[in-house]
Amino acid sequence: MRRPALPLLLGLCMVASAAQAAPPPASPAIPVGSFNDGVNHWRSGHADGYARLQPQQYRQIADNLLLQQRRSGGWPVNQDPLRILEAPAREAARKAQDEPGGSFDNRTTYTQVDYLAEAFTLSGDTRYRDASLRGLDFILDQQIQRCGGWPHSVPARTGYHDRITFADDVTSGVLTTLRQVQTAPRFAFVDAARRARVAAAVQRGDACLLRLQVRQHGQPTLWAGQYDPITLQPGPGRKFELAALVTDESVGVVRYLMSIPDPSPQTVQAIEGALSWFQANALHGLRLQTFDAPPEQFAHHRSTVDRRLLADPSAPLLWGRFHDLADNSVVLANRQGERLQNYDQVGRERRTGYHWYGTWPQALLDRDAPAWRARTGHPAP
Questions:
Q1: pLDDT of 15 above 80
Q2: Which of 49, 68, 190, 284 has the fewest beta carbons closer than 10 A?
Q3: Residue 376 and residue 271: Cα distance in Å, rounded?
Q4: Distances, alpha carbon 375 to alpha carbons 209, 273, 276, 367, in Å
Q5: Strand 164-165 relative to strand 226-227, pairing
Q6: pLDDT for res 25
Q7: SS (H, E, C) the chain
Q8: Nearest-angstrom CA–CA distance, 252 and 245
Q9: Per-residue exposure over 265-287, b if at least 16 CB sit within 10 Å of its own CB, e if not
Q10: Per-residue confidence at 48, pLDDT binned at 50, 70, 90?
Q11: Which residues sit opposite 288 in a β-bridge?
Q12: What's the pLDDT score for residue 150?
């Protein structure tokens, strides 16, 4: 028998050695950006640093979600799923599982359902599947039958928690996830009975969006932050959140409507009405400037900056977070619920602890609307 040539033997040895020395494949990471709103709120109330998991540690993150899920199927608001939970925190989470209900505020519950579906797809751990299904059942059970939207939180602990909520992307975020349940491979485990419920919920929810779009002189505009579940009239949120059109969240509603593959004429009208409103009510010649200021501790946050509005003809377009339901003027308020006329009347606590102005619709107008029109064949009006 001929022996292999020495170079071949050396090459085989090097390949074997490299295979033995190769590090194990990195664990896949599930994106965690959907939790950012709750994480930021958690951090604002816990100034001290704390240990956190890495996105690649998706199983530990999913285990945290299991621990934080209530027996109702929902999740509490403003948690950090990446926080490494020590024994006292784990015990507190176990006790909190018996608390009723859950929240959709700050992108809660529907984001956990989505994450756990992906964790099940990657791991095959049926605990994640079952928790995702319990969360999905909670979502379906909490749809407000009068119109088809979703509340802020269940059970209601304030005067606005039971209202149909668009603030913080509650209704549009839930509907986006339910559409993913219908089409995304990660939700293949959802059974036929639940799929039928999801389809019905999406149909009611879509109709709710069209029904609640505020009309001015017969023309569709934007959406309010909250609506009374009985009268379906716009209502306030927190005291400083007066009943008004909301720009940031209306961008989310329009993006959701644009995601519908075959939009009805009514849906197209709703989208174009909102786009026209954004164009007509942009604020020109104003710049929101953030500048350093002496540190100040408030009840809910610490500020080392302040903000002011400056006249600047070269500034990018701005929109108010809130605009008047009738005349579209910017709506500002203090914590006592009093409407203010000028930004400098807003105290520093609310100037730095809330976003009263922003550029939220700009990418929608510049990027998303042209792409949507090209995809659907709907020309600009």
A1: no
A2: 49
A3: 12
A4: 22, 18, 19, 12
A5: antiparallel
A6: 53
A7: CCCCCHHHHHHHHHHHHHHHHCCCCCCCCCCCHHHHHHHHHHHHCCCCCCCECCCCCHHHHHHHHHHHCCCCCCCCCCCCCCECCCHHHHHHHHHHCCCCCEECCCCCCHHHHHHHHHHHHHHCCHHHHHHHHHHHHHHHHCCCCCCCCCECEECCCCCCCCCEECHHHHHHHHHHHHHHHHHCHHHCCCCHHHHHHHHHHHHHHHHHHHHHCCEECCEECCEECEECCCCCCEECCCCCCCCCEEHHHHHHHHHHHHCCCCCCHHHHHHHHHHHHHHHHCCECCEEEEEEEEEEEECCCCEEEEEEEEEECCCCCCEEECEECCCCCCECEECCCCCEECCHHHCCHHHHHHCCCEECCHHHHHHHHHHHHHHHHCCCCC
A8: 13
A9: eebbbbbbbbbebbeebbbeebe
A10: low
A11: 309
A12: 98
Q: Which residue type does 179 have?
A: R
With tokens 């779009």, the residue in question is 213
Q: What is the pLDDT of residues 183-197, one digit of tens each?
A: 999 999 999 999 999
What tokens does 95 get? 């006790």
| pLDDT mean over 90-94 | 96
For tokens 């033997």, the residue is 9
Q: How many CB atoms lie within 10 A of CB 103?
A: 24
The structure tokens listed for 327 are 């005349």
Q: What is the pLDDT of residues 299-353, one digit of tens each?
A: 888 899 999 999 999 999 999 999 999 999 999 999 999 999 999 999 999 999 9
For residue 136, give the nearest of 163, 104, 99, 109 by alpha carbon.
Answer: 109
The one-letter amino acid at 46: H
Which amino acid makes up residue 329?
Answer: S
- Categorise residue 297: left if φ over 0, alpha if ψ from -120 to 50, beta otherwise: beta
- Smallest CA-to-CA distance from 361 within 321, 329, 327 is with 321
Burial 184-196 (b: 16+ CB within 10 A, else e): eebbeebeeebee
Q: In the predicted model, what is the mean pLDDT of residues 45-72?
A: 92
CB-based contacts of 375, cutoff 8 Å, min separation 6: none
